[in-house]
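cron nightly-structures :: item 1 of 1
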Amino acid sequence: MTQFYTTTEVAEREGLSRFAVLHMCRRGTITPAKMVAGRWLIQAGYLFTYRPPGRPKNPGPASPMP
């Protein structure tokens, strides 16, 4: 029997918002996830890629070469 998690459970485990997990399910960045009876179910052993919203941090000026 395969174990599944809800979006709320995944959000709590990963420290993300439930809304962010929902969007990752819709975009397909959490695998494997499937819609069952109007709810997203995410299989145990899931993989995801998450990029926080906003612009990337500026690393600053390059170090001068001697």
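cron nightly-structures :: done
The longest helix spans residues 18-27.
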